[in-house]
Design goal:
The protein is α/β, with parallel strands linked by helices and 884 residues long. The protein has 23 helices and 24 strands. Helices cover 32% and strands 16% of the residues. Helix 3 packs antiparallel against helix 11 and helix 14 runs parallel beside helix 16. The longest helix is centred in the last third of the chain and has 25 residues.
């Protein structure tokens, strides 16, 4: 049993919620006369708020719905929770065994009991502290009943149960006030991302990271759809502060039952953004249930069953509405009874079920008048309902896996793990708020509000810079002080060079653009350009900055970081002046902003490539949940088993043409200075111009070469070679083969974990593998065809790019519902890196690509897990690497 009988906190009282909220919401919804543009099959104007379905009687009927076999979302989610409860429980609090759970819309708690029992077992075995469980729901009586039932479960003194009676928005307002009180209204999620790390912020070893608990930021202000928050009674909140426990312990929100499907897709993004703002990076979590895009007949039955249970649930909403409107309609609390019939529709294209009331007859309703301030006046208004008119009451959106990932990424959340039922009809997703969020490529239109545009191209927004700086700071934090003057790759610079190179490059180009002096002349001399010598002859190298001979000749870390902070402020001043109209944005300035931003993007990836060579010496990225390799390996093995049963492993393409590059002549910037400078698609000189290439018919494997098959080939053919991404330790002499580990940014992982990842090796060795298998490495144009057909491209939101993970994942084949991806690595092509016909060398950055048209560099295609969405999205982007 829990320590005490459950407390119910009435949020509408503790937050002084407007008592007329339901009346105002209902009146506004019924007085609307604008046809919903989303609903093309059954157009409607008026609505009944979905909230009205969930009074005490409605909750009881809903519980009855979940008893029926027709309502598969309940049973599929229950299956996931029952079969994976222990694994889920260990992940909720990011390796800690205690914390606080707030379940948003708890319902009957019949599914929740499985997780609570697993959490109870964890808390009992570890004294990180007690587990607190808070159930949020709309009806106090139902909360009291379900919590009382839960207390009869076999929970010991390590689980404290309590209830929150109110709406989602009430819960977040209550939590926000509690957190403001705890933090003295001064805490924030992280330091200003325009300010780089100081030496105090840096960690000397990865073990230091365990001690840091990030400050939690209160959630964002309540959106306009909020239940009329008027004021907060801080005295009444005093008694509830302790219910969240120690603020140093993790917090996990649960949003089960696919309830997020009741929002339209853009509304779901907004809701998740609100939840996100109450999470601390790498510390707190959110567990979300999502129904998948299943067979339409199965979905239709779930919401319109043959027993009429769902219909009773929906029609009860009208009874609730009648009671609310009765005072304005001759106290008739049956005002809407028997005047409507239930209409159920599943829209396959939109992936949503729609529930409507259809009027059996025409009649009028009296509503209170509400002024522009949202206040009820003394006046009234008449609303007429036409015969056969539709009133929408509920939507239930379904999400493919790709759509689910897009939903979370658009909201600034990162998927930590996900589970599916045995029939793959329902998904449970554990997500976190990462320390930065670089948006993925090509978000769906409904998710584009995350940046107020559907494309990541054009001039980088100021917010893009601050997120990228946060990314860069995270990467700098992975480098212990002892590594600053080391070369992870012998033929490259020391790590400190890259810390100074990014701000120096920015400083140089800002100064050139505006004819201003440099912030630091000496830093230009040593940080302007790095070294990239020939792998065959290191003495052959393009022009580069002077390299200090001794460690003492390099600037100190503090000097470099101070310089970085100064250049960031210079950049932000440019955006401020543009916003104030003091500075005109033309194509030339826009190109400088594009170039300096993407330069940082690409060097972040380059530095990570270098650091992974010394992965045993670096810190894990802060603000991200550590991967559970054992659980991930289990999931990937299951997915691989399913994927291996699919047919069409080899894809065939007919003879066709494909376009490489795009039209973006830097030389025309002056001629088109004011031609859409903010939205033009900028690129690098090697991307111009758009050129059409003929491609002969070809056949290609659906997914790239993976570690397991590559190892089998190496060992089976007696080759001693092993990729640089592998670490080999000799066997123990008792018949065991080599022990192989795979390098990651989290250190070494067992080969069994990474066996399904795409292999990373030299072009020379991969060509040898392909020849032995009777094939060859694809050309640049062929891989472009493969991507355009939606097979294994990394140019979409569900691909493993833009730090969806800090490591590769198994590639996925395309299906009818989702695009494929290659696992998050750049792919070699057999095409030497050459000029496109009509190439013009950049005058801004003359040596960007021209130094590498040497026959030794080959084009690599796609993107990696560390490639920002802006680069992954642009189809014209071309990358290259040396063939040893």
């Amino acid at each position: 049993m829990s320590k005490n009988s459950s407390t119910i906190h009435n949020l509408s009282t503790e937050l002084a919620i407007d008592p007329d909220f339901s009346l105002k919401s209902l009146s506004t919804a019924l007085s609307n006369d604008k046809i919903d543009s989303e609903s093309t099959s059954l157009p409607y104007t008026k609505t009944i708020p979905t909230l009205l379905l969930y009074d005490n009687k409605g909750l009881q009927i809903y519980d009855e719905i979940t008893q029926g076999d027709f309502y598969y979302p309940f049973w599929k989610e229950l299956e996931i929770l029952r079969d994976n409860k222990d694994e889920i429980a260990t992940k909720l609090f990011n390796s800690k065994n205690a914390g606080t759970v707030i379940e948003l819309g708890a319902g009957s708690l019949r599914k929740t009991q499985y997780l609570l029992q697993a959490m109870n077992k964890l808390s009992s075995s570890n004294k990180d502290g007690d587990t607190n469980y808070l159930a949020l729901d709309l009806d106090r009586l139902e909360l009291e009943r379900t919590l009382a039932e839960m207390e009869t479960q076999q929970l010991d003194n390590d689980v404290n149960l309590a209830g929150l009676c109110g709406t989602y928005d009430m819960c977040f307002d209550w939590l926000s006030e509690k957190l403001r009180r705890d933090s003295g209204e001064t805490s924030d999620i992280a330091t200003d991302s325009s300010t780089p790390l100081t030496s105090i912020d840096r960690k000397s070893s990865s073990s230091d990271l365990d001690e840091a608990v990030p400050a939690r930021k209160p959630s964002i202000p309540t959106p306009p759809s909020s239940p009329g928050l008027t004021s907060i009674d801080k005295n009444s909140l005093n008694s509830t502060y302790s219910v969240l426990g120690d603020d140093k312990n993790p917090l996990s929100f649960w949003h089960l039952g696919s309830s997020i499907g009741n929002f339209d897709r853009s509304g779901a993004v907004s809701f998740l953004q609100t939840v996100k703002n109450s999470l601390r990076p790498g510390f707190d979590t959110l567990l979300v249930g999502l129904d998948k895009r299943n067979d339409g007949k199965v979905i239709k039955r779930a919401y319109d069953d043959e027993y009429g249970v769902t219909e009773r649930f929906i029609m009860n909403g009208l009874s609730h509405a009648s009671r609310i409107l009765a005072p304005y309609n001759n106290n008739n609390d049956k005002l809407l009874d028997d005047k409507f019939e239930y209409v159920s529709v599943y829209d396959e294209e939109k992936g949503r079920h729609e529930a409507y009331y259809k009027a059996k007859e025409g009649f009028s309703i009296t509503l209170p008048s509400i002024n522009a301030l949202g206040e009820i006046t003394d006046g009234v208004q008449q609303v007429h309902i036409q015969k056969d008119e539709l009133l929408n009451v509920e939507w239930s959106y379904k999400y493919s896996d790709d759509e689910a990932i897009s939903l979370f990424r658009a909201a600034g959340l990162r998927v930590v793990h996900n589970w599916s039922d045995s029939a793959n009809m329902y998904g449970l997703w554990l997500v976190e708020r990462p320390s930065f969020n670089l948006l993925p490529p090509n978000l769906p239109q409904w998710a584009s509000s995350a940046r107020n545009m559907s494309s990541l191209q054009g001039v980088p927004a100021a917010s893009d810079w601050t997120e990228m700086w946060q990314c860069w700071d995270t990467i700098m934090g992975m480098v212990p002080d002892s590594m600053l003057h080391r070369k992870p790759i012998d033929l490259r610079h020391i790590v400190l060079f890259y810390f100074g190179h990014i701000p120096a490059f920015l400083d140089i180009y800002i100064s050139r653009q505006f004819g201003q002096p440099l912030t630091n002349d000496h830093f230009k001399e040593i940080f302007e350009r790095g070294i990239d010598p020939s792998m065959e002859d290191p003495n052959i190298c393009h022009d580069h900055s002077a390299v200090p001979a001794n460690e003492a000749d390099w600037p100190t870390l503090e000097e470099v970081l101070e310089f970085d902070m100064t250049t960031r402020q210079r950049l932000l001043n440019i955006y401020a002046d543009i916003d104030l109209g003091k500075l005109h944005l033309d194509r030339r300035l826009a190109r400088v902003l594009h170039m300096t931003y993407e330069h940082m993007v690409m060097h972040a990836e380059t530095l990570l490539y270098m650091l992974i060579q010394k992965c045993e010496d670096i810190n894990a990225p802060a603000g991200f949940v550590m991967p559970d390799w054992k659980a991930l390996a289990k999931q990937w093995n299951k997915e691989e088993s399913h994927q291996s049963k699919q047919s069409n492993q080899v894809l065939s393409f007919p003879k066709c043409t494909v376009t490489l590059g795009h039209n973006d002549a830097e030389s025309s910037d002056s001629e088109h200075a004011n031609d859409a400078p903010d939205s033009h698609e900028y690129g690098w000189d090697c991307e111009h111009p758009a050129t059409v290439h003929a491609v002969d018919a070809f056949r290609v494997d659906a997914v790239p070469i993976r570690n397991k098959e590559y190892r089998e080939w190496l060992e089976g053919s007696g080759r001693a070679h092993r990729p640089a991404s592998w670490v080999v330790r000799e066997g123990d002499g008792d018949g065991e083969g080599d022990v192989i580990k795979i390098r990651t940014l989290y250190g070494m992982v067992d080969f069994a974990v990474a066996q399904h990842w795409p292999v990373q090796d030299s072009l020379e060795m991969l060509e040898e593998f392909a020849r032995d298998k009777g094939g060859r490495i694809p050309t640049e144009a062929e891989l472009k065809v493969l991507s355009e057909y939606g097979h294994t491209g990394n140019d979409h939101a569900a691909a493993n790019v833009s730090f969806a993970n800090w490591h590769p994942v198994p590639p996925k084949q395309a299906t009818e519902l989702q695009r494929g991806h290659n696992g998050g690595v750049w792919e070699w092509t057999s095409t030497p890196f050459e000029r496109l016909d009509g190439y013009e060398a950049s005058s801004l950055y003359p040596g960007y690509s021209s130094d590498f048209f040497d026959g030794k560099h080959f084009t690599v295609a796609g993107a990696s897990y560390a490639t920002a969405g802006r680069v992954a999205e642009r189809a014209s982007f071309r990358n290259w690497y040396q063939k040893p």
